[in-house]
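$ ./design --mode recover --in tokens.txt
reading tokens...
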């Protein structure tokens, strides 16, 4: 059964009814090697004895989380494309996309948090408006906040948000690209050395 926009706004979510375009980019097309990150890491360890043994557990944990974020982000993008293509009356893709976006952001936050704990370096302070701070706020809203008059986390044509923070798709994707560069360094000694020289 299909629904018109009015009952969706009244009974489900005004924000779900407001999405009309897919603002998320195809990150797999932008970083096609992402699907091989885990294999490439294994090859780097086996054939190049890189990264050093002490860094391997944190490195594999970081890579797997960013890898999963890329997968979930693409699944979300596909659901948004279904939503905007089919138009009025099909609203399940909104919630499927929201779930995938939440998982993608959670994986990105957990990757960051693992580095924070390992390095004992704080990447943000609460309320500083940084990407990392906003990522933390959306992650916490998704994990802990109950739905009240609206969803704890939502997405729009432009990005994801909660009551305390907003991240645009462009900001999320820029950060994902930066994480991809980190992973290249973890899988390739020469790239890592070059990064240390600059």
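writing sequence...
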């Amino acid at each position: 059964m299909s629904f018109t926009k009015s009952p969706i706004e009244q009974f489900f979510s005004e924000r779900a009814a407001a999405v009309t375009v897919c603002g998320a980019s195809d990150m797999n097309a932008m970083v096609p090697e992402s699907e091989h990150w885990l294999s490439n890491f294994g090859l780097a360890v086996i054939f190049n004895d890189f990264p050093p043994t002490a860094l391997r557990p944190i490195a594999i944990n970081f890579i797997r989380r960013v890898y999963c974020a890329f997968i979930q982000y693409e699944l979300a993008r596909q659901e948004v494309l279904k939503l905007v293509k089919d138009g009025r009356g099909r609203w399940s893709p909104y919630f499927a996309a929201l779930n995938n976006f939440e998982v993608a952001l959670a994986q990105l936050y957990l990757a960051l948090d693992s580095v924070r704990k390992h390095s004992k370096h704080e990447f943000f302070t609460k309320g500083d408006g940084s990407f990392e701070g906003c990522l933390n706020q959306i992650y916490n809203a998704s994990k802990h906040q109950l739905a009240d008059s609206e969803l704890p986390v939502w997405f729009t044509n432009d990005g994801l948000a909660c009551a305390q923070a907003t991240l645009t798709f462009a900001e999320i994707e820029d950060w994902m690209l930066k994480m991809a560069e980190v992973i290249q360094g973890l899988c390739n000694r020469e790239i890592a050395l070059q990064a240390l020289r600059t």
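exit 0
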